Each structure stands twice: as C-alpha cells, then as structure tokens.
Amino acid sequence: LVAPPKSGRSLIGHMTAAETGATVIDDADRAEEERLFHLWNAARDAGHNLLLIAAEAPPVWQVALPDLRTRLATAPVARITAPDEAVSAALIAHSLELAGSAFAPDVPEFVARRTPRCYEDVDAIVSRLNGLSLSSGQKLSVGLVRQAVCHETDLQGSDEPGGTADQGRAG
Fold first, then answer.
1. Residue 128 contacts residue 149 (beta carbons within 8 Å)
2. Which long-range contacts (CB under 8 A, 24 or more apart) does 63-69 make?
3. Contact yes or no for 92/125 (Cβ under 8 A)
4. Stretch 138-142: mean pLDDT, rounded?
C-alpha cells in the first residue's frame, strides 16, 4: 500500500490485519531487508497475506538484497492518492466532529478550497481550527476562520473570482 503520511494508511493496515490476519509492515521501505525477506517467505510458506506500507512504491526503495528486490518487483501496488477538494472537506468535517468542535456547515468546504491537497496540511489546519474553537469558545464560522486563520500563510482567503483561491481552477 503506497500512500502519503496522514492518509489513513496505518489505520488501513491495522484493519487489514484484524480482518484477515495479514502481517503488516508499516514504513516497509525503512525496514531491515533481511527481516523483511524472512517475513515475506514466512507469510508465503504459511499461506498468509503480507501488507507492506510505505510512502513510495518498491521500485523507488533502495534494496540491496537481490532476492527481496525480485519479490518486491512482482508485488501488486495499491495507492492512496492526494485528497481532492471533496475528500479534504469530508476529512475536515469528520476530524472537527471527532474533536467535538462546533462548526457551521459551510466551514469544511470553505477551508478545503484554501488548503493544499495534502493529508498533512489538512491535519495541520484541523489542529489549528480545533485550537481556535477551544480558545474562542465559539462555533467555527466562515467569518471566524477567515479572520483568524486565512490571514496566516496556510490558507488563501480570497473569495473573489480570479483570487488566489481560484488560481489554477477551471471556471
């Protein structure tokens, strides 16, 4: 499983292990090669699944052990790509709900339109929004988010057509 950090890849690994009994190696690209090779063989011999999780696909890994390199070259790869605007908005809403932050229904979409398409950036902005909610004691509104967060470097606050938030988007 190839996916960027904060994309839920470890959670998927834990769920896969719980449901299928698979052996899961998170950050497999950094695992010791001999150990990985032996785990691969043990899983194969026992008829079990092995799920390797990393930020990059095996061809990018620096693998010195020839037999491991060959096995990795034949492994199927599933990818979690960067979130689009809809996924970002859903992640923002879900994370704010989990944290117990009250927010207006238009806040997640407003923030998603102004957040880079990266799970780590979405996670960082949600942390800031939760902090804002706690410190202000107010329900998060577009106005409050715009005032407190958009004036910082992470979000672009322009709602004007052709403004920074609309650059590179088809009209």
1. yes
2. 63/33, 64/33, 65/33, 65/34, 65/37, 67/37, 68/33, 68/36, 68/37, 68/40
3. yes
4. 93
* Best CA proximity match to 63, nearest among 72, 55, 54, 74: 72
**C-alpha angle 153/155/158, rounded to 5°?**
110
Quick check: helix, strand or coil at residue 25? strand
Asked whether the beta carbons of 39 and 25 are under 8 A apart, the reply is yes
CB 132 within 8 A of CB 148: yes
Start-to-end C-alpha separation, the chain: 35
Distance (Å, rounded) from C-alpha 10 to C-alpha 26?
A: 7
Helices 66-74 & 33-46 angle (0-180, nearest 10): 50
In degrees, to the nearest 5, what angle opens at C-alpha 130 toward C-alphas 149 and 154?
30
pLDDT digit string, tens, across residues 89-103: 999 999 999 999 999
